[in-house]
Every structure is written in structure tokens, then in C-alpha cells.
Input
Amino acid sequence: MGLPRFGRPKGVGGSQLSPNLYVANCGPAVGISYETIALVFGAFGEVSGVHAADESGARVVVSFAEEGSARAAMEALDGRPCQDLGGRSLHIRYSVLRPPTSLGPVNDSVSVSLMASELNIPGLYLLHDFVSCKEEKDLLAAVDERPWKNLSKRRVQHYGYEFCYETRNVDSKQHLGELPSFVSPVLEKISMFPSLGDAANKVLNQLTVNEYPPGVGLSPHIDTHSAFEGLIFSLSLAGPCIMEFRRYVERGWLPKASSSTDMNIENPERNSNFLRRAVYLPPRSMLLLSGEARYAWHHYIPHHKIDMVKDRMIRRGSRRVSFTFRERTEMDVYSVSLLEYLKLCSMDLRLSSQVATFSHCSLISSLLSFCIAVLITASPARTKACGPANLACLYWSRPARATSFLDEPAHDRSRPTIVSRPCWT
Output
């Protein structure tokens, strides 16, 4: 994760001098560690770092403190077998750090933690070795015996209720039955999950199994507030990955709901308008999203084949399978999760910092609560049938270039508008 952005220097054949060398046919994927690479190239001068050139694991960038050291290494090793590196013939070119683009500096690196507690995100928990190796094998065998549904880049299975990627919701009328018996041991362990308290008695009635091939991740999103209750459990099996969490400070850039099965978001890192945290999810670990982690932070799996964790390159393996357990929201009950949903939606629907005050948030929250109450009171059956994600929510539309509400022309001045669409945060 966070691969340094190197490129070919200007000049014929990329011959411009540089302290950085692009080295092909060398790296962890061919059995050569970063430490060994640094040691071999260190014979020509001080090595300031060894980086993955891409996600193949077989190409690296060796950075020297001085250009002269890089030139000496290139002259000695390029195109020749290196006995200290397994006798492999190295293909070496100069490399330079790419300059910032016109969109501003790109920060594609974030420190990866091994424990959820290091991220300081309220409501986020991670337990390692939640299931045993045998339980992992049995769970994978059970889902592999059942039919998969193919999406554009991955395969899925749904139990309890099918998750609709177009609406990012479940169809309450399409009950698929109880969760399969092979997940009963997992559900029993979940009921004893630390820090749950009274929530341990909740009934998880929706399960989505995702199979991710190498290089396939998950676009930034928050599970629809009104579709599911406040606890979401995700069990990682077969392969590891990095999960990144993002809290958007302003509304300048947000991923929108997509009509396809996968949102296509190019370079979301180009916006620095959010807080970033990342944690390593090893196989057999269980992640719990609750409270602020569930309602206010987008979670995201980078589309990488290799992740960088504490200066170590970790390959994701042939596949990663996740079991995500949720509880479908009953909209005829004014649940705690719905109240949290209203509160956080209203907090995110703020104006600019010049005019956003507590009174604005309170007013919007009150209006949201009133709209929901009117819908439920007027026609409970109709409200329940239309589904929670289609309930009205307040949506503040204002010109993107306006610096504040007060700067907008009178005819463009925004106002709270009731729209029938899922509320995305």
C-alpha cells in the first residue's frame, strides 16, 4: 500500500542521471528480500530505501543517497547475472520520483496498523484468529459447494436476504430463509464478542460472502445507514488485505451510489479532504464496525495484489473470502441505529464552516425526525413496503464552487429539499 510514485526520467531511453534505479527481475516474488537487495546494492554506496516498483513483486526501485552510487551500481549490474541475487540477470534503468499533478500533491501512503485500537476510531474492533485453521477450511469448503453469483470483478453469495448493489439495500420481501448451519459456530462466537454488552443478543439475519481474486478490492463506501442495524461483522478468510478507513471532513468529494455492481472511482486519494487510517486484516480475523466506525467512516480495500505493511511486502494470495454478517433494519421500529443514522446524516449535511453551527445540525436533525415520523404514522404499511433506503432524507444541494451559503446568488441559494433516494454519507 502506498507504492512510491516513480517514473522514467526524460532523455533518450531514460538515460538522465538519478539516484533511483528501476531494477527488474528482482524482488520478493522471485525469492529475494528487500534486505538482501539493500545489502547487495549497498556495496556501491549508501542505500536510502528499496521500494516496490509495482504490484508484481518482481520489480523494485533502489534509492541511493547519491547519483554517483546509482551510476556505479548500474554499470556493474545491468544485464549481468548477479550471484548474490540468485544468479538472476538484472535489467536496470534510471528512475525519478513523479512530480505532483495539476490536481495537487497526491498522498497515496498511509501508515498501516496491526491493531484496530491504534487507529483511534470509536466502535472499530479487530480480533485475530477468530476462527481456527480447520474452521476456516470448513467454511471455505461449504461455500465452494454452493453456487456463486458472478459480478464484474468478484463472486458473491447471499443468505437471509439478498443485497441489491443497485439500490445498496435489501428487499425485505425476498426472504431467502435462515442463515446456513455451517456459520452457526461463527454466530456463537460472535455472541461472545468482547465489548458487545446487550448487543450480544441481536439476531444477525443477513450474510454476504464475497470472493476477491488477486488485485480486486472494494471501493470506498458506508453500508446504507437505514438498511442495517448498528453492528457489522466481517470475517476474513483465505488471504490477507489492507482495509482503509476515511472520514470526510467536508463534502467536497464523496463517492456516489452507483447503478453498477462496483463503483468505479479513479484516484480518490487526489482529494485531501478526509482523515485516513489503515489496518491489516490477516486471514481468520474478525472485524467489527459499530458506532462511529460503522456510520461515519467509509471503509475501502485498495485494488492491490501486494500490500506494504510495516516496510514488509505482503502478497494477498490466490483469493480472499469475506463473510459479512448484518442485521436487517425493521423500519416499523424506531431503532437506535435509525436515530444514529439521523444524527450523523444531519451532521454531514452541514454548510461551510462559516455558517455551520450546532443549531443548524439540530434543526436538520429535527426535520429529518419529523419527516420519518410523518411517513410512518401516515402509512406504516406503505412505509415498510417501500424500504428504508427509499425513505425521504434531507439533501442539501448547493453550487460546488460557492465558498459559503451567503456567497451564493439569491436565485441559486439552496434550501432543504425532500428527495426520495438513499442518504449517502
Remarks:
- DSSP finds eight helices and 25 strands in the chain.
- The longest helix spans residues 358-378.
- Residues 364 and 370 are 10 Å apart (CA to CA).
